[in-house]
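Hey team,

Filing this mostly as a record. A colleague (T.K.) asked me to run one chain through the structure pipeline before their review meeting, and I want the input and output archived in the tracker in case anyone asks later how it was produced. No errors, nothing strange. Just documentation.

Input sequence:
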Amino acid sequence: MASNGLKETLAAMERVKLAAKEAAMKRLIKGANDVADIQRRLAPKDTGALAESITVTLPGQSTPPFSQPGGSRVAGEGQVIVTAGNEDVRYPHLVEHGTSKTEAQPFFFTGYRLLRDQIKRGTASAFTRAAKKEWNRR
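Output structure:
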């Protein structure tokens, strides 16, 4: 009985899926590091502790306790989390939004919004390029 190529096609589709996911994750990590760099530059430099507390959490890793937004949690598969704050720096939300006695000094969401669309486009582009390259591979 002759093979109709189904096995080879399914194997190729699996290779495409894995290559595209890997390329998209690499681009997403680069984008998260870019966002964190901008946020560090925008953060007020009174002591420098706030800027130093901005971290990037990769899939499977845990965010620092007391970090904003959301506190300590584990990044899921396909997630890269940028947070500000830790055990020593528990005030990023107060700096970002201000209080009744202090003016807001936005740095966190401003940095995110600056690069959000660029990261989305770059990640989608990396996914598509890798999928096409892998599909056309012999």
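Quick notes for T.K.: The longest strand covers residues 55-57. The chain is about 55% helix and 5% strand.
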